[in-house]
């Protein structure tokens, strides 16, 4: 009897989501039935092409700066991840997800560190409601030269942030906001501008051109340093990478700073 009720709930949920423009994968994630999904973002400017390793084997290969891989299925349980120079398995940086779970999305980010390559890990529980068509948004800081940021997503026709609260506050180096293990922020589709400030300040250090954010989009906004040699970087010289989640390989959109033309 329990199986019948569960099947009925699944069929009803799928019908509702289909009617509202959602996808069956979202249903599986929301109900905790979808296999865990993982993808990789290369966020090291001027960094070499790399292979993405899961549990010691190459899952995706020859990934260059700004590239975002397809989501791929992985098994549940403890999972080690790393990236290595293409064609090798000697990790440049590595980490572990202690308990990979069904219905979750996992992101691994190649990050420039203070003494070489580093890694960022995000566990996204994907708690989006079945009937929601909102866009999902999360920030990550891969900029050692701008180690604590507030990010504002504001309408393109009103970029004054004097009285605005940060959309993503206090994004510190090698960390995400919302934090790994928490769900993304939900926003409506529209035409927006992204503004970054030093945390607690209202003085922009970065302001993007306007762009369209579609409903049902799944965005990771990652700050990256301009250039690849850390010793030559000035404080707060950053770009923002927008990595789109999904199953179509596409480079991240690199937003440049309209405040200084960089």
Automatic annotation (TrEMBL):
InterPro entries: DUF4397. Pfam families: DUF4397. Keywords: Signal. PROSITE patterns: PROKAR_LIPOPROTEIN. Residues 37-152 form the DUF4397 domain. Residues 1-19 form the signal peptide. This is DUF4397 domain-containing protein. It comes from the Bacteria.
